[in-house]
Amino acid sequence: MDHKKIMEFEEKCIQEHPPACNATCPVHVDVRSMLAEIKAGRFTEAFHIYRKSVPLPGIISHICDQPCRSACKRGGAGDAIAIAALEKACVQQMSIPLPKTTPSPRKPERVVIVGGGLRGLTAAHDLAKKGYSVTLFEAGSTLGESLSKNFAAVLPSQVIAEDLAIFDQLGVAIQLNTTVDKDISLAALSQDYDAVFLSTLPSEQQDQLTIDPITLSTEQKGVFAAGSPDKERAASPIGAVAEGRRAAISIDRYLQGVSLTAARENEGSFKTRLFTSIIGVEPLPVVPLGHNRSFYGQEEAMQEAARCIQCQCLECVKVCQYLTHFKGYPKKYIRQINHNLKMIKGRHEANTLINSCSLCGLCQEVCPEGLHLGELCGLARQEMVTKGKMPPSAHDFPIRDMEFSNGEQCVLTRHQPGHTVSNYLFFPGCQLSASAPNHVERAYAYVTEQLSGGVGLMLRCCGAPAEWSGRTEVFDGELQQIKAQWEEMGRPRLILACSTCGQMFKKHLPEMKTISLWELYDQYGLPEVAGAERPARVAVHDACTSRQEEDLQERVRKILRELGCQIDELPTSRDKTECCGYGGLMQFANHGLADDVMKRRINQSPADYVAYCAICRDNFAGKGKRTYHLLDLIYGEANPVAPARRGPGYSQRRENRVRLKNKLLKELWGEKTVLAENSFATIKLWIAEDVQEVMEHRLILVEDIQKVIEHAERTGKKLFNHESGHYLAYYQPVSVTYWVEYQPENEGFRIYNTYSHRMEIPHGDE
Amino acid sequence: MSQGKGQGAEKVIECMKCGIVMELGNVEVTYLNSKFPIQLPKCPQCGLVYIPEELATGKMLEVEKALEDK
User: Fold this and answer.
1) Interface contact A765, partner B, CB < 8 A
2) Straight-line distance from the first to the last Cα atom of chain B, in angstroms, rounded to the nearest whole number
């Protein structure tokens, strides 16, 4: 995948963007981490985080005007966090003496800073730390004089003295009682030093120099300058620190001969893209400062810091089991996927990540930036298939199931009996045919009764499994067959009972006009059913492939209301609905995760569920949740007191499709099909329920077992276990080798166990 | 690849085709162009092998997955 495309996805995930407090702070204190440390009582660690961004922590914590606080999200649920007070608490609660600051290795360049205010002190600090030889000119008779004057009420002289000791450690030469223009000229300074920073611009210079607001450079080479002394007093103290830092960055770049302007967007205050929801955050007031004190004690500080909601986005992760399962967030996943696609040798660790997504698009719906991770997973799968890097086991079974659905035994395309043209074409989909073939019969009877001009029938799979598995060519092949038959039928309007078919056709065969079966029931009226069984209350589970189909969702609800059902809405429904675990073939690529997805969904409401996708229904019912298909309700077969009715297993699903075709052919078209039955198909099996469970879990079909026994009995190639008294045989009909443990019983065979592997045994199939 | 719990199983497994009790023997299983020599209960005459369930669903599955991710 091209790098630009990956970057587009990555750029959309905002989880790693800084919280609002951090972005708003002009020197970007990592407030979130600092507060987490305070909350845990680790004041020294918190202090170190603070000092990383703030050059004179004692001074700044006393005078900071905390622009961060107005940006604090906590303000939307109670009071904003008292950040400055907590910073002060950090400085006060430090349990160890401040370690000495040592500058980087000495650099030869000499820098002079004019002015000992916050700008000058910050610039001197930063540049000295980088190893430059720094001289600072202070107009007063002591360093810090302007600070004690400007902040007399809040800044104890001891705090100033303690903080300013750092300049000794850094070896900054302080020249007191020195004013530029009075004691020394700017021209002389420029000659003596490699760079000059006029941190407060003398009035004489104000008209002569133009200052670039981004770099603070002036038209004089090597001379950098900030605003007037009045400006510093009026402006924000932390803003002044940020300006000093800006000057230091510029001077360092200037002395190193690199670009002054590159990548400076995020210096100073900026607006973060990070989104943080405060829905569900309990409002809490600010913790008051202790009695008669202007600061927090340890306990109070910990309590106040505990109010921090530790801003992050994770909107998608909150609603998606898949995103939760891999313990990260999209940006991280996108990097892993990118790495996975690019690497040639070594273990492709993100294969499971890529193949586990349901592709359902819920992430896009809830993402403030509209990131659709499923889209990337889909593209990644296509690339893996193209490069031959798709793990064969991931989608093998559902693809074979699709091939079966679209094989001669199951497919059927016919005009309505007695018609030679079709105005409509009923396309029930492979899963309704597999899960509830009787519903297909009834629905077909209903639509042929209601609609004139001929309603044809097409039994087959829309190809979704191929699309989901990244097999673009196979999918296109399926679509072309559907399209060709549809054209042969005279381009009738398709009647769809499955929203996945709907989604596939809308996207890939937009020329085919479609209408949902539910719209027809709504429009032509519900059938009268005698002795109908229906629950009084249901929760609607919208299929994930109907996410964008608002009209469809509404029709379903309308039908339910007409049937007399009260509707509970699940916490996530309609455009925010969740997948049942089948979408994107998750169920096959990551069985455990799909289980979790189903459990999560069925626990969202105690009400019985109604689904309008056969797979959603079967998945939930399989987990013990009473779930009806909408057709169960329409035809009054929704018993609200019976236990959840499990759907048929994989083998039965195949059989149902075959029987449906034959039954309809016989009953509606009067055609008798003689199916070429395979020799193995007549082998009778006795399979206990627990073994059937094993078969479902291991994706082993009745027909696979029949093939093994047929082969073993025909060739005599079988083993006998003297301990269990059972026969054992293996056979490899496809890419999988199946093992069966069995015993002859009543003209057939009793199956005790079955398992499979993909590793090939030499001559295993002879 | 170790055959784990299958150890000793050969003593009770008989090849019905040849009527002989199986013995541990060398077998080369393959997957995705990789070969793995393993010791498995094997019919000394016709070469029919026995892969116990624990091996198929345990270590073997692990190796299959690892190869698929290579």
Assistant:
1) no
2) 17
Q: What are phi and psi of B31, to 5 degrees?
A: -160, 130
Domains of chain B: 4-68 (3.10.20)
> Which residues have C-beta within 8 Å of that of residue A196, sequence separation ≥ 6?
A111, A112, A114, A186, A189, A190, A222, A223, A224
Q: Are residues A370 and A450 in the same domain?
A: no
- Please check whether residue B18 touches A, CB under 8 A: no
Looking at the fold, whether A637 and A731 belong to one and the same domain comes out as: no
CB-nearest partner of A759 from B22, B46, B60:
B60
Q: Say if the Cβ atoms of A739 and B15 lie within 8 Å.
A: no
Strands A748-757 and A737-745: antiparallel
**What is the Cα–Cα distance from A191 to B68, expressed in whole angstroms?**
69
What is the structure's pLDDT at B10? 66
**DSSP structure string for A315-365:** HHHHH-HHHHHTTS-HHHHHHHHHHHHH--SS--TTHHHHHH-----HHHH
Amino acid at A375: E
The pTM is what?
0.92
Nearest CA in chain B to A730: B50
- Specify the amino acid at residue A568: D
* Residue A673 covered by a domain: no
* B35 touching chain A per CB within 8 A: no
**Residue A574: which domain range?**
537-645
Dist. CA A643–CA A123, nearest whole Å: 75
Segment (H or E) for A44? helix A43-53
Q: Are residues A517 and A411 in the same domain?
A: yes
Domain final position from A369, A390, A411 = A390
Specify whether A29 is located in the same domain as A78. Answer: yes
Is the predicted ipTM greater than 0.90, yes or no? yes
Q: pLDDT (tens digit, 9 = 90+) per residue, A136-153? A: 999 999 999 989 999 999
Instruction: Please report whether residue A229 resides in a domain.
Output: yes
pLDDT in tens, A245-281: 999 999 999 999 999 999 999 999 999 999 999 999 9
d(CA A234, CA A251): 25
A84: left (phi over 0), alpha (psi -120 to 50) or beta: alpha
Looking at residue A618, its amino acid is D
Whether A340 and A375 map to the same domain: the answer is: yes
Domain boundary (A346, A362, A390) is at: A390
Q: How would you classify residue B33: left for phi > 0, otherwise alpha for psi between -120 and 50, otherwise beta?
A: left
Q: Which of B16, B46, B56 sits opposite A755 (nearest CB)?
A: B56
B32 shares contact with chain A (CB less than 8 Å)? yes
- The CATH number of whichever domain residue A90 belongs to comes to 1.10.1060.10
| DSSP letter (8 states) at residue A546 | G
**Residue A740 CB neighbour total at 10 angstroms:** 28
Q: Are residues A386 and A399 in the same domain?
A: no
Q: Judge whether A249 lies within some domain.
A: yes
Q: How many domains does chain A have?
A: 6
Residue A302 sits at φ, ψ, to 5 deg, of -65, -40
Q: Are residues A359 and A406 in the same domain?
A: no
Verify that A545 and A601 share a domain, yes or no: yes
